[in-house]
Design a protein that fits this description.
Layout (H helix, E strand, L loop, with lengths): L33 H10 L2 H5 L18 H19 L3 H10 L8 H11 L8 H12 L13 H9 L22 H9 L10 H24 L12 H13 L5 H31 L4 H5 L10 H19 L2 H23 L6 H4 L7 H13 L3 H11 L8
Helix pairs in contact: 1-4, 3-4, 3-9, 3-11, 4-7, 4-9, 5-14, 6-8, 9-11, 9-13, 10-11, 14-16, 14-17
InterPro entries: dGTPase, dGTPase-like, dNTPase_2, HD/PDEase_dom, HD_domain, PHydrolase_assoc_dom
Pfam families: HD, HD_assoc
Protein name: Deoxyguanosinetriphosphate triphosphohydrolase-like protein
């Protein structure tokens, strides 16, 4: 029975009362929809709590005002809900996908993912999306009847496919997986529960994915300015940002820097959100979908930026790549983080008995792929500070990552 006061959804929204269900069937909740239950299970998971001490760009102790994976996730969730509400999608599913999208990230941001991918090169590589799927289907061990969180098909599908199909119509990997193939963890799970890897994801998943881009652009500008990696007027080389700064300076010519930065970032978010809603409305009107399946089979992303705003997004990312992500100070810390995780991986793989008992159970050094994957799972779940503490426990010298 649908609860009293349920929000309106468009016909193309995913309907929690018509979900394809869970791998392990469960009784319907009398107080929450299936997507609300998914959201709540994600929030109460151990992996979600660990996001508090996982890096975005800066290590955890650099400053209290810099984003962590947790604060980034909360910002993505807020934007995803706003998009879903405006476009008639299911807000709870969009929020669940936003809250879960970074559960597979390693300590030390993208540096950790790159390091583990290299360490795992002979054993299937490492991909944070595939790791998020492992977290919610295997690695979270909280319930008596199954491993994982037993999320709905729609949440798992969106988690895996939020960036688009993984396979083409012939079953071959799409361009982003053409070189190394679809990650093994995804293919293994897909053999158990078909996530339809050759179709696009739901509108809710697309909203969560574009919300991630919006949040990244805005908060990395904010964090980069706070860290002194570039100055606010350096942003004028990006035409989109130059236009916003001109608006702010025209209205408030003597605005103090902190307020100027905040006004810039809030306007960036607003412009992006309004553009996605307008472009989504335009594409939805042209497609005229009558169900969530129509969006999955549209052959293109429906919830996205306009061409003009895609160019603005790309220009911001080019600026941040050159001036922030590849800044000498950031690169120096990245090199130290790489050393910490590489040392840990090699040591645990050579001496798995150094891992906690639950992680070393049933392991054999003769089964390299299984051993390597267990070590990668263990390290990927670490927070920044725990990885540093483990390195200090096992090695005489540990970089201070400052």
């Amino acid at each position: 029975m649908r609860p009293f006061g349920e929000r309106w959804r468009a016909p193309y929204a995913c309907d929690p009362w018509a979900s394809r269900g869970r791998l392990y069937p469960e009784a319907v909740s009398p107080t929450r929809s299936d997507f609300q239950r998914d959201r709540d299970r994600i929030i109460h998971s151990s992996a979600f709590r660990r996001l508090k001490h996982k890096t975005q760009v800066f290590v955890y102790h650099e400053g209290d005002h810099f984003r962590t994976r947790l604060t980034h996730t909360i910002e993505v969730s807020q934007i995803a809900r706003a998009l879903a509400r405006s476009l008639g999608l299911d807000e709870d599913l969009a929020e669940a996908l936003a809250l879960s999208h970074d559960l597979g990230h390693t300590p030390f941001g993208h540096t950790g993912e790159d390091t583990l991918d290299e360490c795992m090169a002979r054993c299937g590589g490492f991909d944070h999306n595939a790791q998020a799927l492992r977290v919610v289907t295997r690695l979270e061990r909280r319930y008596p009847d199954y491993d994982g969180l037993n999320l709905t098909w729609e949440t798992l599908e969106g988690l895996v496919k939020h960036n688009g199909p993984l396979l083409d119509a012939e079953g071959q990997p799409t361009l982003r997986y053409a070189e190394h193939g679809v990650p093994l963890a995804i293919m293994e799970y897909n053999a158990v529960q078909d996530l339809e890897l050759a179709t696009f994801a739901s509108g809710e998943a697309q909203a969560a994915a574009i919300a991630d881009d919006i949040a990244y652009d805005a908060h990395d500008i904010d964090d980069g300015l706070r860290a002194g990696l570039f100055k606010i007027d350096d942003l004028r080389e990006v035409p989109f940002l130059n236009g916003i700064l001109a608006e702010i300076d025209s209205r408030w010519p003597n605005l103090e820097l902190s307020r100027r930065i905040h006004e810039l970032t809030r306007r960036v978010i607003t412009r992006f959100v309004e553009n996605v809603v307008a472009e989504g409305d335009r594409r939805l009107a042209a497609l005229a979908p009558e169900s969530a399946e129509d969006i999955r089979k549209a052959g293109e992303t429906v919830i996205c930026f306009s061409k003009e705003m895609r160019e603005a997004d790309a220009a911001i990312k080019r600026f941040l790549y050159a001036r922030m992500y590849r800044h000498p100070e950031v690169m120096r810390v990245r090199a130290q983080a790489d050393q910490v995780l590489r040392d840990l991986f090699n040591r645990f793989k050579a001496e798995p008995e150094l891992m906690p008992e639950e992680w070393r159970a049933d392991l054999s050094k003769d089964d390299e792929p299984r051993l390597a994957r267990r070590v990668a799972d263990y390290i990927a779940g670490m927070t920044d500070r725990y990885a540093i503490l483990e390195h200090r426990r096992l090695f005489d010298v540990t970089p201070d990552l400052r």
